Amino acid sequence: MLAEDKKMNGSNEEREALTTRQGHPVIDNQNIKTLGNRGPAMMENYHFIEKMSHFDREEVPERVVHARGTGAFGYFETYGKVGDEPVEKYTRAKVFQGAGKKTPVLVRFSTVAGSKDAPETDRDPRGFAVKFYTEDGNWDLVGNNLKIFFIRDAMKFPDMIHAFKADPASNVPDPRRMFDFVSRSPEATHMITFLFSPWGRPATYRHMQGSGVNTYKWVNDKGEAVLVKYHWEPKQGIRNLTTKEAMEIQGKSVGHMTQDLYEAIERGEYPEWELYVQIMEDGYHPELDFDPLDDTKLWPEDKFPWLPVGKMVLNENPTDFHAQIEQAAFGTGVLVDGMDFSDDKMLQGRTFSYSDTQRYRVGANYLQLPVNAPKAKVRTNQHRGQMSMRTPEEAGGNPHINYEPSMVGGLEEADKSERTPHNPEYSGKVMSEPIDRPNNYGQAGETYRAFEEWEREELIANLSDVLSICDERIQEAMIHHFTQADEDYGRRVKEGIEAKMKELEEKGDDNRIPGQEAGIKSKYGEGGTNAQNEAVDEAIEKGRETDGY
Asked: Which of 34, 68, 181, 256 has the fewest other C-beta atoms within 10 Å?
């Protein structure tokens, strides 16, 4: 760089020279090579062609769910106990053993249904995924901020996400699609109660809870197993937003949660969460009025208390968002020794889906990327594929043997004597049937009654606003579900819908008649929420006319 160029840049420091991806110094990064200074361009523009062709391929496909997100690095510190008991009583997982031991972690927070650039103020569950780089390999604890889910069977998951996303014809978000699905899925009543309350709009990622949602197992040295649920509790406290507050924030920023997390860590205000578990003996538990494997349900704390096992601190921001956060890949099947799967049908389905989507989205060798690679040594015969970065050491002592078993060399199975396996016994008919203790409404009513009055008022207002534009059949079904949960709940939603419909009709908006009568063809695609409809009208009414140029 010339002295006068350095002066113009306001810097006298010597900086490293820009190179191509082949390591060649770039002496002109401002002008393509042309015939004369006006063009045409020449074919031998190697630097330009490499630069532009890589730019065209910069993005990997966004996640189908949890597309909008951010993350940070830190550590998990174990207490070495479960409550007051030694952790070894329940699990031999090394990540929990040895009080004070720290394990590096990566956490990715996200929204669920929105696209990569959707507002972070949207009403949506928030993803809370933690990757532990343990001495026994990676462990992924993949969950949400809300401790339950909409459905209990993985077969319904693609349909649910389709219903929650934008209309496939118009690409307009339309809540009628969501409630059309939910009205035929009564098990979603509990989750809808949480989602349309202020709990559906966390204020920041730092001020929200986390949960594994699904039921897992812990296994001890004897091969004995217990059921376990995971809960993250923020030491910063919990903060939620009303719809009005969220919309005010959204008018100023669509990424305030990402900014808040990043800047808090930069300031040295490292967010912390305490990890709790609930433990239950594995079994049917006939004394409960619900199936403990049903992820639309909470385990009552008075019967299954929260037991602290450790804390997590996030103290390091990413330095390359794409490499460290966008390419980060999580899976519910990523467990370490001392952990196992329960018979939870949602967990079984997620275990295939999560890792499979990363193979498509990032690539067959996504586990070789630094952010996804374990800190423990990798020795595997799984190799090749696009962009493989496998090192010779991964093949073991004999690189000529890429199979197992072998008499002459290569890798071999680990010593089984070090781990007593957990071998559950099963006996029953193979079938495709729902569980026999659905109890779709009991806990939804309990949650409604546990809310503070301002939370109930916000819940009713939010549901009434959205349901007022829905088909009459959907309205009736949802009122039925809410009434089954709690009579006051159903009555107030019914009255709220009627009041909102009357308000809309008095406005005289003939183009968007609320509460379509049963039998009238749906207008999906012609409008979204009442607020969205108002925005469309206001854009035209308030738009300033001007001449062309």
From this structure: 34
Nearest by Cα to 296 from 431, 444, 516: 444
User: What distance lies between CA 385 and its chain's CA centroid?
Assistant: 28
> Residue 73: what residue type?
F
| φ/ψ (deg, to 5) at 307 | -120, 120
421: preceding bond cis by omega (within 30 degrees):
no
Q: What whole-number distance in Å separates Cα of residue 324 and Cα of residue 71?
A: 9
| Amino acid letter, 520 | I
pLDDT in tens, 90-104: 999 999 999 999 999
**Mean pLDDT confidence for 315-331:** 97
User: Number of structural domains, the chain?
Assistant: 2
Does the active-site annotation cover 481? no
Distances (CA, A) of 346 to 219, 350, 496: 21, 6, 34
| Annotation says 439 is catalytic | no
Does 48 reside within a domain? Answer: no
Kindly name the residue from 66, 190, 231, 481 that is annotated as catalytic. Answer: 66
Alpha helices by DSSP H, 188-232: 189-195
> How far is Cα 382 from Cα 404, in angstroms, rounded to an integer?
11
Q: List the single range of 434-443, 511-520, 535-544 with lowest mean pLDDT.
A: 511-520
- What is the reported pTM? 0.91
Instruction: Give the domain extent around 230.
Output: 69-368
Q: Where are the alpha helices (DSSP H) in 334-388?
A: 345-361
Distance CA(386)–CA(509), nearest Å, equals 56
Query: 209 and 330 share a domain?
Result: yes
Find out whether 113 and 161 touch, Cβ atoms under 8 Å: yes
Consecutive H or E run containing 149: none
Q: How far is CA 337 from CA 64, 308, 419, in A?
A: 30, 21, 8
Contact (CB, 8 A) for 514 and 500: yes
Handedness of CA 389, 392, 394, 399 (dihedral sign): positive
Q: What is the CATH number of the domain that holds 124?
A: 2.40.180.10
Task: Cite the annotated binding site for heme by residue number.
Answer: 354
Rounded Cα distance between 82 and 364, Å, is 38
**217 found inside a domain:** yes
Residue 439 token pair: 């109890």
Position 52 in a domain: no
Taking alpha carbons only, the member of 203, 205, 224, 273 closest to residue 91 is: 224
Annotated catalytic residue, options 47, 138, 144, 220: 144
**Per-residue pLDDT for 325 more than 70?**
yes
Per-residue pLDDT tens over the stretch 140-198: 999 999 999 999 999 999 999 999 999 999 999 999 999 999 999 999 999 999 999 99
521: DSSP letter: P
